[in-house]
Design goal:
By secondary structure, this protein is mainly beta. It has 5 helices and 24 strands. Helices cover about 10% and strands about 45% of the residues.
């Protein structure tokens, strides 16, 4: 992706407001006028804010075994719209995906499901994204038969439903000299476009962005030619060299109707592990769904999770100190 010039720190955007979060925040998502915050709180897993008034309009979701309760704190979360364009919040909850009717849940102030989908794959390795018209996009993480064999099978991306299709992105087998790096290097952050037509897939430790177009069954990769590639990790035998080379390129992502955004960085991964405070700067790049850079912003905090409201051009971000910042872009 040709990123152009990065704004200087003199152009830094400063936060408009800040909110202390008393429960650990896992994920931020925006759809329509609502900001959905997933919390580490067994009695209130979701907090919904109406971004027009910056007021909390609902708190719902709890740990439990009922149909509309959750086995674990939600981590894999994405937003879609149904055929009537009503907002949905989709949550992979181990062996099932629970699709929350957001408006009904706000009105009732409790979790109301629009659908419940039982999963038939191991949730540790498979992340399904159930889209519109009975179409699903599936991401399979790195797998192996026996890690002692030092033979791994790379991630897979495929579509199921009305028709099945698999994209061939990676080699069939990985035989790394330094196997401890495989899981983290091949990990991906994924968000679907709210209409379900495209999938954004971003590598955290590689400067690689993938866009999957489901109607055309195509995938487009945007890469930095100056970045190391997967072959570097697979072939390099010097563990210290690998650790001192791997960089934290992408920190968080969001997806809206017109744009997707990425927190961009080039910090060494080892240095990133040492940084657990919010002091510093973050660069957020905004792209259209063709992969063209539209805008680039520098904000005044180091952030680990972001969401963007397209309707009022506002960014919400969670810092490394678990505070919610609001930015008017």
């Amino acid at each position: 992706v040709a990123c152009g010039e990065t704004p200087s720190k003199s152009d830094t955007i400063h936060y408009e407001s800040v909110t202390e979060m008393f429960s650990e925040v896992y994920r931020l998502n925006c759809i329509d006028d609502y900001l959905i915050i997933s919390n580490e709180n067994k009695d209130t897993l979701f907090t919904v804010i109406d971004m027009r008034t910056d007021s909390v309009v609902a708190k719902f979701g709890c740990i439990g075994h009922a149909r509309n309760e959750f086995l674990t704190n939600p981590f894999f979360i994405y937003c879609l719209r149904d055929k009537k364009q009503s907002p949905l919040v989709c949550v992979l909850d181990q062996k099932s995906t629970k699709i929350i009717d957001l408006k009904k849940s706000i009105e009732a102030n409790k979790c109301i499901l629009a659908d419940f989908i039982k999963e038939d794959k191991n949730f540790h390795f498979y992340q399904p994204y159930h889209l519109n018209d009975s179409v699903s996009f599936v991401h399979k993480a790195v797998t192996y038969y026996d890690p002692r064999d030092n033979i791994y099978f790379p991630p897979e991306f495929y579509m199921t439903g009305k028709e099945n299709f698999k994209w061939n992105i990676y080699p069939d087998i990985i035989e790394p000299i330094y196997p401890n790096a495989v899981d983290i290097v091949y990990s991906n952050m994924i968000k679907p476009k709210p209409d379900g037509s495209k999938i954004l897939c971003v590598s955290g430790l590689m400067d690689i962005v993938l866009l999957f177009d489901l109607p055309t069954k195509t995938a487009t990769a945007f890469t930095n030619p100056n970045s190391y590639t997967f072959s570097y990790v697979n072939e390099n035998s010097d563990e210290a060299s690998v650790k001192n080379t791997i960089r934290f390129y992408h920190g968080a992502i969001f997806a809206t109707d017109s744009y997707f955004g990425i927190v961009e960085d080039t910090i060494l991964y080892l240095d990133h592990l040492k940084k657990d405070d919010e002091n510093g700067y973050s660069t957020i790049n905004l792209y259209n769904w063709d992969g063209k850079l539209e805008k680039s912003y520098v904000i005044d905090k180091k952030v680990r999770e972001i969401a963007y409201c397209e309707r009022n051009n506002t960014l919400y971000a969670i810092s490394y100190e678990n505070r919610l910042f609001k930015y008017k872009l």
